[in-house]
Amino acid sequence: MKNLILVFSASLLVFGCAHNETKSDGVAATANIGEPTKFRMSDVAPEKPSEELEIIPTELNANVDKWINYFQGRGRPHMERYLLRSTRYEALMKKVLRDNKLPEDLFYIALIESGFSSQAFSHASAVGYWQFIRGTGKQYKLQINQLIDERRDPVLSTQAAAQYFKDLYTRFNSWYLAMAAYNVGEGRVDRAVKKYKTRDFWLLTKNKHALPRETDDYIPKYIAAKLIAKNPDKYGFEGVDYMPPIEFDHVTLNQPVNLRLMAEKMNVNYEDFKALNPKFKGEIAPLDADNVLGLRIPPGSYELAMGAAKESITDKIEYVADQDEIQPYKIRKGDTFSTIARRYKTTVAYLRDINDFARKKKLRVGQKIFVPDRTPLKEKRPELQAAKVYIVQPGDSLASIATKYKVSVNDLKKANNLSRKSKIKSGVKLILPENAVMEQKLQKNSSSQHKTKNQKVAGSGKKHKRNVASKN
User: Distance of alpha carbon 374 from its chain centroid, rounded?
Assistant: First the structure.
């Protein structure tokens, strides 16, 4: 087995750009193992507004009220979901903004852009927490390729967003215009300012063709979201089940590893491990340009990580998809991105993303690409043939699912190989224990019998009413 060397940096700032990580001499020769780099809530300085740049104004008007009403009404499920996720990233992202001498309130841009989901993906192929398109992401030094997409990393993408906002504010000298440009592009805002001879965002919105409707709504939507997030009780969002803040240690390796295997060796849930390292598109974590690999690991687990990493080294440096969600496809004559997207019930943007294709790249006959795997889950995983699968919904917990299907939490964890501290995410498929499947079948049969009985009673009742009516 190849020799794996793990190096733990002693500096606190673990969330600088990955391309600038300090390399220890231990990587080249002998292991130099010390304390891992850490991110702990106790290490984060108390919040204080930055005095380097103008504070983002909070103006109230009818457009802001409209969005407050939306989030309190039709958009309430979305806002509740965004709020519960927000606490996972708030301290971390606000620290990055503070370190860049930017107002911390820019944090709420990520709320309206992605709802704090690393998997957020727009029709325009914008990806991640801050919804960078490929070109802008690469412009701000985010690595995007077949194996890695740093737009999905909460630290690296926030660092890039901070630099982008600095540039936008320098250009427009207005936070509202800077945020509008973040939404629609600098060129469009520049042209609107020159044509209508105003730098007042609200005046621009009164001209129907100055900015797109989405951009007109962007600032009031941001203000509404910020007001609610800062004072949820005031706006009727009491009792939100907030997620705990993200915490981790950081380890540097000198060999690529299979993350699924490493998680298994560490006895941690793979989904939890990937949530700490979301920049990796699949199971394989390769070395970077400096021939090192930085990974975030659960707090206090560096000894486990050392042993697990040594057993998880891989020579297979290619995309290995999570949960078998893709399959290879060979391009045939007449194929286009649009026809393939329709055939596999997906979007052109998703096809380009999983294949790392730039917007202008064309398909060639005989070329092999990845497409979504639409094979039924039970065909791909025979062990599920006799099992019932539950898809986790927003707001679910292991306890609530266990209660719903009348099983114990321990049985649920055992069936899914979950550790004691494992958490579940919306959209994840859980295998229900055998007794849960039986219970559901019994409930279904009982429900069917009850329904049939009720239908008979209801039918006789209707007949009785018709007879009475005829007599009258």
Answer: 22
Note if the pTM is more than 0.70.
no
457-466 per-position pLDDT tens digit? 344 443 333 3
* CATH number of 158's domain: 1.10.530.10
What's the CA gap between 184 and 180, in Å, rounded? 6
Q: What is the CATH number of the domain that holds 355?
A: 3.10.350.10
Write out the residue range of the structural domain in which residue 135 sits. 62-235
CB 58 within 8 A of CB 33: no
Q: How far apart are CA 102 and CA 175, in angstroms?
A: 11
Tens-place pLDDT, residues 301-336: 999 999 999 999 998 887 676 654 667 899 999 999
Instruction: Report the SS3 class of residue 286.
Output: coil
Instruction: Identify the active-site residue in 113, 150, 247, 283.
Output: 113
228-253 core/surface letters (b: 16 or more CB in 10 A; e: else): bbeebeebebeebeebeebbbbbbbb
Please indicate, yes or no, whether residues 31 and 69 belong to a single structural domain of this protein.
Answer: no
Judge whether 113 counts as a catalytic residue.
yes
Give yes or no: residues 72 and 206 share one domain: yes
As for how many domains the chain has, the answer is: 4
Q: Helices 186-196 and 154-172, interaxial angle, to 10°?
A: 20
Q: What is the dihedral of CA 412, 418, 422, 425, to 10 degrees?
A: -70
Kind and range of the H or E run holding 262: helix 259-266
